[in-house]
Design a protein that fits this description.
Elements (H helix, E strand, L loop, with lengths): L1 H30 L11 H20 L3 H15 L4 H17 L3 H11 L9 H17 L3 H17 L5 H20 L3 H18 L4 H16 L3 H12 L10 H13 L4 H12 L7 H17 L3 H18 L2 H17 L3 H13 L10 H13 L3 H21 L2 H30 L5 H42 L9 H8 L6 E8 L1 H8 L1 H19 L4 E5 L4 E6 L5 H17 L6 E8 L6 H26 L1
Antiparallel strand pairs: 1-3, 1-4, 2-3
């Protein structure tokens, strides 16, 4: 009897234990229920279901069933929450390949939205952010930059506070930050982007001092400083990147040499820029056409700088064709602008006008607005075509673009951020040095050590303050130089068209003269453009000398076109004498075959500034027509 009771008790204990095991196994299953069904979701089962789902998704993608692709994708993501890290890394990589291969832009956007929705909030951060990283690169592949930025904006704070526990998760965290920095650079918000790159670089180095992604950071920092017009730092980072190209990243080499050439060209070192281009062309590796397209655009800029216009035109034609084929709208804008400028140089003005207008008005998904130079190129063509009213309108758009770009590229803030980063590194080195010193001299007098540390800190502070002062002085000087360049004509040192339009807004002038040199073409054609430049400078100097006796402002507003604003009433006879005197003096400097035409308009004759310019222009052209026989005989 006792034996039977004992056996019954053992059976009860066994059943109770079995029930407990069942409950323990069931609890995580209930927490991980998904839209698939309510069956148990253990890791092996989840892996099997994901494998089957991947096959179904691939088939749906092949036939273009986007709705089914999106539905299956959300299930795969949820299931990946219950499998091992190596498994969900492989799954996310394979999904990315399918999305790109089948051009699943809508599914990628839907997947990104799902990852920041309540439906995915139960997931562990490691798999969720691994998926977010892969989808981020896919969105960049599909040029969906605005969608990607809105997704990352939601998660930035959480990403920063996240404490990953594996090297892969740490790499994911760093990648998300450096992707966000790239998005800011594409919007030319370089100052805002730098902290994300610096933080990403620190996270990558925590995984591996030679992590391949550090190379990517160097490249993007080079690109960022190029856009910020800090060309020396751009050159510095790109040269670092060229010295550490990881195995298998030969696709980036053309892009690196393009950025390097651009940085050199914009430092007024075009010969070195061309050497960098030819170094790459001697051994080209171009599996990615978009990278080589960017390289070709920089090549055109360098050829333009070196005035190799025939070569530049041929390259611009082939680059425009490649940009059209690749379909990158921003590169196509630049290729169209270069081709338009070169057609203008070869006097094919109708083609130039059409292409430049197309470049200005075409859409862009990466940069915000057009570069200021695009408007200047178009203004030059409109001026040559005699469409002065339109030229004035586009010149105003150039001014707005110039101001907007200057506001985006805050040089002072960028310099301060760079200095803070360097100071942070110095502080880390300082902390390490102090720890080693404390360990080596633990038995020394603490007061003496304290005094030495204070002295060292004070010296460091003085050095830092000195460096900041020098940097601020240099930045202020650069700012003044940029402002001067914006309002000064580089050939004559007179105020340019921008300065003239600004002065025109003042209410204290009484009259306007528009003057134009007759005979410049003769000197350009027979003696070269340098002689033509000397004529323009001579005429400007003689006008300044003559007008020194009057309360007037002189501007060079075009190639051989000048404007004079008078601030008091002067008889027409006196003005005529001054203009003839300036012309005679110019002829006496070695330009005997030169002439000049001008038109005088009084402010009280018109209603506004535009009418004043138009009236002075008309009268100048009337005089030019009257002078034609004389001018023709001169020529």
């Amino acid at each position: 009897m006792l034996s039977l009771e004992f056996k019954e008790k053992r059976l009860h204990y066994f059943l109770a234990l079995l029930f407990v095991v069942f409950v323990l196994l069931r609890v995580p299953t209930l927490q991980a229920d998904t839209p698939w069904d309510n069956t148990e979701l253990l890791s092996p089962l989840a892996s099997n279901r994901i494998a089957i789902a991947m096959q179904k998704m691939s088939a749906a993608a092949d036939v273009g069933n986007q709705k089914l692709v999106i539905e299956i994708l959300s299930r795969i993501i949820v299931d990946s929450n219950s499998i091992a890290e190596n498994d969900y890394i492989e799954v996310s990589a394979n999904v990315s390949l399918i999305l790109r291969k089948t051009n699943q832009t809508a599914a990628t956007k839907a997947l990104a939205a799902f990852l920041v929705s309540e439906d995915a909030s139960f997931m562990k951060l490691a798999p969720r952010y691994r998926w977010m990283m892969k989808i981020s690169y896919d969105l960049m592949f599909f040029t969906e930059f605005s969608t990607l930025k809105s997704i990352l904006d939601v998660e930035l704070d959480t990403i920063k506070k996240w404490t990953p526990t594996t090297d892969d998760s740490r790499t994911v965290q760093a990648n998300l930050y450096h992707i966000y920095g790239q998005l800011l650079v594409r919007q030319q918000r370089v100052a805002e982007a730098l902290p994300y790159f610096y933080q990403a670089e620190a996270w990558f180095k925590a995984v591996d001092d030679n992590h391949p992604s550090i190379f990517v950071i160097q490249v993007i920092l080079g690109e960022a400083f190029l856009q910020a017009k800090d060309y020396q730092r751009a050159e510095q980072f790109i040269r670092l990147a060229l010295n550490m190209v990881p195995e298998g990243r030969v696709d980036a080499i053309s892009y690196l040499y393009a950025i390097l050439a651009s940085a050199l060209e914009r430092q007024q070192r075009p010969v070195e820029a061309l050497d960098a281009i030819e170094t790459y062309l001697a051994n080209p590796v171009d599996p990615r056409r978009d990278y080589f397209l960017y390289f070709s655009l920089i090549h055109i800029e360098v050829l333009r700088h070196l005035q190799e216009f025939d070569l530049a035109l041929e390259l611009a034609k082939s680059t425009h064709a490649l940009a059209t084929e690749v379909g990158n709208e921003d590169y196509l804008k630049d290729a169209t602008r270069h081709l338009g400028f070169l057609y203008a140089y070869f006097n094919q003005l109708d083609k130039a006008k059409r292409l430049l207008k197309e470049a200005i008005e075409s859409p862009s998904h990466i940069r915000e607005g057009n570069p200021p130079q695009a408007y200047l190129d178009y203004v030059e063509v409109l001026t040559k075509l005699g469409q002065y009213q339109s030229a004035l309108g586009y010149y105003a758009r150039y001014h707005s673009a110039f101001v907007e770009e200057s506001q985006r590229i805050n040089q002072t803030e960028i310099a301060n951020l760079a200095f803070q980063q360097e100071n942070q590194r110095l502080s880390q080195q300082q902390a390490l040095s102090e720890a080693q010193l404390a360990l080596a001299k633990a038995n020394e007098n603490r007061a003496h050590l304290h005094t030495r540390v204070l002295t060292w800190a004070a010296t460091t502070l003085v050095i830092i303050v000195t460096i900041i002062s020098v940097m601020l002085f240099q930045l202020r000087r650069k700012s003044i130089q940029l402002h001067q360049m914006a309002i000064e004509d580089q050939l004559t040192k007179l105020g340019n068209r921008h300065a003239f339009l600004h002065a025109l807004k003042k209410p204290n002038y009484t009259a306007l003269i528009i003057a134009d040199i007759d005979g410049l073409k003769f000197y350009n054609d027979n003696y070269g453009h340098q002689k033509g430049d000397e004529l323009i400078k001579s005429y400007a100097n003689q006008m300044q000398k003559v007008l020194s006796r009057a309360d007037a402002e002189l501007f060079r507003i075009g190639g051989d076109e000048f404007a004079i604003l008078f601030h008091h009433t002067i008889p027409h006879t006196i003005v005529n004498e001054w203009m003839k005197d300036a012309l005679t003096r110019t002829q006496q400097t070695g330009f005997a075959r030169v002439g000049a035409s001008y038109g005088l308009a009084m402010r009280d004759e018109v209603r506004n500034d535009q009418e004043l310019i138009s009236l002075a222009d008309q009268r100048m052209y009337t005089m030019k027509e009257a002078n034609k026989p004389t001018t023709d005989s001169v020529r």
